[in-house]
Amino acid sequence: MSRPHRETEAAGRVCGRHSGCRNPGTCRVSRRLCDHPSPLPSALEFCAERLEAGCGSGPLDLRDRLLIVPTRHAGRRLREELARRAAARGSAVIPGPLTTPGGLCRPPESAQTAPRSVTAAVWADLLRETRGNGVQALFPRGGNDREADPASDLALAERIQRLREELDEEDSSIAHLAEMLAERPGEGPRWRDLLRLEELYRERLAGLGFTDPCDSRRAFRADPALPEGVERICVLCVPDPLPAAISVLERFAQKVPVEIWVHAPEDLAPGFDAWGRPDPDFWTTRTLPFDGTSVHATADTGDQVTELREALLRRKPDTEPPLIGVPDREVGRMLSAELESAGVEAYDPAGRPLRHHALYRLLDHLVSLLRDGSCGSVARFLRHPRTLGWLESRIEGFDDEAFLRQLDDCRDRHLVTDREALRERAGAMEDGSLLRRAVEETESLIGRLEGGDFPDALAGWLEEVYRTRAWSRSRAEDRLLAEAARAVLEALDEVRAAPGARWREAAGAGTLLLHRLRDEAVYEERDPRALDLLGWLELPWEPSARLWLSGMHEGAVPASVIGDPFLPDGLREEAGFRDNAFRYARDVYLLESLLRSREGAHVSFFLSRSDASGEPLKPSRLLFHCTDEALPDRTRQLFSAPPPMHAGAPFSVPWHLQPPDPAGHPLECLYVTDFRAYLESPLCFYFRRVLDMEPLDESRMQMDARAFGSIAHGALEQMGRDRSVCDSTDESELAAFLESAAGRLMRDRYGRRWPAPLAVQWESLRRRLRQAARVQARERRAGWRIAEVERDAELELGGFSVRGRIDRIDRHETTGALRVLDYKTTDRVTPPARVHLARWRGDAPACAHVEVMDRGSPRSYRWLDLQLPLYLLMTDAQEAPVQCGYFVLPKATSETEVLLWEDLDAGLAASARTCAEAIAGRIRRGEYTPLKPPAHGEDWDPLFVRRDPSEVCAAPGGGEASS
Predict the structure, then answer these.
(1) What is the mean pLDDT of residues 128-138?
(2) C-alpha dihedral, 150 to 156 to 157 to 158, nearest 10°
(3) Rounded distance, CA 587 to CA 578, Å?
């Protein structure tokens, strides 16, 4: 049985330019409000009952009525509810036309109406050509001198077209604003420039055989076609109809009755205008019925989402889930991801942004490659899973792991900065190299895209990419991919029609394609078990008893326009457009309707003090529409700093790295440098040496310490092998040789085009080598002669062959004494003893302990490095004394020197041997604890999420993960 309703003639204050019908004598507009005891029904129940009234036992025939609902979701819910009610009566529904205010203003599709890609391309070209040329008021700084960038041109084009669309929604135009502001300094010239550009834009579209979409809609509104058979129009609970839609309704009202259904009881009738829009004077001072509601304030958005998730998971399975509102779409996105990770499927009627789909990311990577050709763009494209699958289908024996390793090695070793450099490096590799084949396939693809019709070439390539993929309509991800693919193909058809040479080039066409797709949404089929995450305007159409409103922040609720360069809020108010005051009134009304339909007791508000990036958030003004008595407590509650959800609880990671069992990765040998790595961090040694893992920094544009040292070592090695050079005492000759040798090594490794940071490093290396030449000449004059360079040495320790490569061995011409030298290209000079030894610390392994005479007394020290003592053991020269040390080439070149470890004797060497044997035994047994970070472990921070390794990583082989 339907509830009674009150019908009144259109009356009351009207917001905006439409203060009444153009022909009030023939215009038939009436308004219906809900009139029954509290609680207020939902908008869905109100409309369904009213539509159902009078149909009797027969079918509900809606063919004679045009129904207008606020959103697509509201239309879907209304159809479902009417069908459910008809089924309960044993009857049926004969549907009629149903649309939204935006759909009401949309003319029938026409091939003459320019698609979005065409309007964007025309505007982008026009703005580039005219900027600084006759439109100085709009572009006072000009801008034609800057390099053409399709993306930035399209962004500006989008802003201008969006302005035109906003004005069109307000049933206005640039011409109207230009006339209104003609005499206003500053604004008048700007709007005249916009009007001049708009006229040029229309001329260009007409020359292409197109009409502008805004002009098409305006022409349609001037003489709209009423759907055949419609005898009545019902505007169902639309609190914010577009003024453009009202323009259409005014014309329809001259032919058929128009009913405005307002979701409010009759005591609130003075708060609405003739079209059901809330009156700001009435609503902005309303006291809302907050009795029994609850407010949950959290420290940040992450805590808010976590609280919502945990509250949902605590719910009893047999209870009805709450209705969840997400006025803040960012909170909705985070909540959806959080729920899905907990196994709760969520559904967003607004769809998923296409830019978050893997297909869009693939296109984004490809277009970036076409646009800038940077090595980062190439690498991102090649690493995309669909690209790897495509390469596998094209290259026999393709192995993605081996290929990615080659790609990383090439990028890391050669600092490849762009596509051309990568092509050169890959071309120098052997024919069967996976990287070479992959680069060849990529270059072939680029040739196809750049050499022919871009839309056809891209569509053909996408078909290749997805051809081998198994499809099933039963899988949600496949249905979503099909929707994404459909959107891409439609956009490609539009791109094909775009005029202008640069939009036919691959880079420009690709940029236009991404621009067209960026704001597209793809819609999933709703699972009946899914939890709906509804937007603000959709909430009144859900009758759920409990309501949770998340993201109750200023800017989200009420919605506001701030800082618009063309239509600031003051101008909107002056022009009679929907302004912030109107949106504020609308949202106060919507909140009151939500509260009244649940009598407040089952409504909870969730908000945060800051967003996910740490930016502060203000609570919504709507929450302060309480009674004066409740206001102080409400203010304290909303502005007091809430503690983090898990205050005092230690940080924990919900997952642990599970390294492979060391037993499956035995080492064949050890190197003298391994012992320092193990003593510093057994776990990082395991990752680097046993699992062959290396941190990778794709943004690196300069040599790391190891590469820098390698170039210096290479030049010094060449000097040591050339007897005519290394025996020279001429500093200039030595410097010239070292610089020439280092230059060849740099060019071999990094090519001839170096990024600026690498060029700076080259200058630093040249200075260091010049100082090394000075020291070398001095040492040669002192009788020291290079006897060997890069000598391979070996020692059996703890069941391993320990190998080393001694940089150089000098012999004195007179005494025959030997010295073993290791080149060090460090930032600061550190004596060898301090590199190898440090004061004893309780957490050091027992095997690292060593007694050292310090000022005549034995003191406890610990080994940090075993390199020079092991070199001493490996040299084992009986006929002459041996000293070990460093030939240091520091950043401060004046400190370049030969530093000997004078106190390194047989006793220290024996202690080092004992320590090395103990470490070798631990490695052989697969012991890689404690799980501590290296002293300078920034490279490993991403792996350990900047935490102690023991918190995020299990011990290799299942050992005790102590730190």
Answers:
(1) 78
(2) 110
(3) 13
Pairing mode of beta strands 800-812, 818-824: antiparallel
Q: Residues 129, 260: one domain?
A: no
- If asked whether residues 367 and 510 sit together in one domain, one would say yes
Partners of 99 in the β-ladder: 68
* Angle at alpha carbon of residue 197, lines to 196 and 200, rounded to 5°: 90
What pLDDT is attached to residue 375? 84
Pair 802, 658 in one domain:
yes
CB 490 within 8 A of CB 459: no
What is d(CA 625, CA 497) in angstroms, rounded to the nearest whole number? 53
Q: How confident is the model at residue 652 (pLDDT cuts 50, 70, 90)?
A: low
The 10s digit of each residue's pLDDT in 512-558 is: 999 999 999 998 888 888 888 999 999 999 988 889 999 999 989 99
Kindly report the CA angle at 127 between 121 and 129, in degrees rounded to 5?
A: 100
How far apart CA 152 and CA 120 sit, in angstroms, is 12
Residues 477 and 374 in one domain: yes
CATH code: domain of residue 97: 3.40.50
Structural domains counted in the chain: 6
- pLDDT computed for residue 430 by the predictor: 86
Q: What is the pLDDT of residue 10?
A: 37
Residue holding tokens 């919507």?
590
Same domain, 940 and 800: yes
Residue-by-residue DSSP string for 798-826:
TTEEEEEEEEEEEEETTT--EEEEEEE--
pLDDT, tens only, 655-681: 677 888 888 778 999 999 999 999 998
**DSSP strands (E only) in 920-960:** none
Q: Which of 210, 236, 255 is the last residue of a domain?
A: 210
CA-CA distance, 929 to 959, in Å (whole number)?
Answer: 8
Residue 438 lies in a domain: yes
Q: Tell me, what CATH number does 596's domain have? A: 3.40.50.300
Are the beta carbons of 604 and 548 closer than 8 angstroms? yes
Q: Are residues 386 and 486 in the same domain?
A: yes
Q: How much is the mean pLDDT over the chain?
A: 89
The residue assigned the tokens 């979409």 is 213
Is residue 6 within 8 Å of residue 32, measured between CB atoms? yes
Q: H-type helices in 243-357, by residue range?
A: 243-252, 280-283, 301-314, 329-341
Indicate whether 644 belongs to any domain: no
For residue 283, tell me if it sits in a domain: no
CB–CB of 810/784 below 8 Å?
yes
Q: pLDDT (tens digit, 9 = 90+) per residue, 66-124?
A: 999 999 999 999 999 999 999 998 899 999 999 999 999 999 988 899 999 999 999 99
802 in the same domain as 759: no
Instruction: Give the domain extent around 391.
Output: 354-522
Same domain? For 796 and 930 the reply is yes
Angle ∠(718,723,726) on CA atoms, nearest 5: 70
Helical H segments across 640-728, by residue range: 674-680, 682-685, 705-721, 723-726
Domain membership of residue 875 (yes or no) is yes
* Structural domain ending residue among the three candidates 600, 620, 639: 639
Which residue is it, tokens 């260009």? Answer: 204
